[in-house]
Amino acid sequence: MPGYGNSPPAETVATAEGRVAFLDHVLQELGMRRPVLVSPSMSGRFALPFLLARGERLAGFVPVAPVGTKDYAAEQYRRVQTPTLILYGDRDTSLGPQALQSLQHLPGHRVAVVPNAGHACYRDKPEDFHRALLAFLRQLE
Q1: Which residue in 92, 102, 109, 128 is the catalytic one?
Q2: What PANTHER family does the record tag this protein with (predicted)?
């Protein structure tokens, strides 16, 4: 992600609007029409504003204990119509429950808690993570 890790800072993603435009551009360049956006941790800074601004472009949304959920009001989440699977590990005592508190305002959401997994539940328990993800994806078909 621009501005994270070893990538150089990027002015274009300094604002939520810039991050929406960036992600929109990436999806267009990849030719993706109505993808399911899986958003773990730091990617929430890109995925959440995109969901709120352009959620109709997504077939589904899978936040995995993303950061930034408290930046938006319950009313903003209530306007989103994108099917959502809120996923986190039961040993994630910080971001997982915090994200759930905000994201539970999304209409039509489902919650899956990965047992014996921490914040990176997809690494701790990949089989359980993928089982929950695949069940959600099948429900979208």
Answers
A1: 92
A2: PROTEIN ABHD14A (PTHR46197:SF1), PROTEIN ABHD14B-LIKE (PTHR46197)
pLDDT, tens digit (0-9, with 9 covering 90-100), for 60-106: 999 999 999 999 999 999 999 999 999 999 999 989 999 999 999 99
Q: Residue 71 belongs to what domain range? A: 34-138
CB 103 within 8 A of CB 87: no
Question: Known catalytic residue: 124?
Answer: no
pLDDT band at 113 (very low <50, low <70, confident <90, very high): very high
Q: Please state the domain count of the chain.
A: 1
Q: Which of 43, 109, 119, 128 is catalytic?
A: 119
User: Catalytic: 119?
Assistant: yes
* Confidence bin at 140 (pLDDT 50/70/90): very high
**Active-site residue (options: 24, 41, 71, 124):** 41
| Residue 48 CA: distances (Å) to CA of 53, 90, 125, 130 | 9, 22, 24, 22
62: left (phi over 0), alpha (psi -120 to 50) or beta: beta
* CATH number of the domain that residue 133 is part of: 3.40.50.1820
Task: Decide if 90 is catalytic.
Answer: no
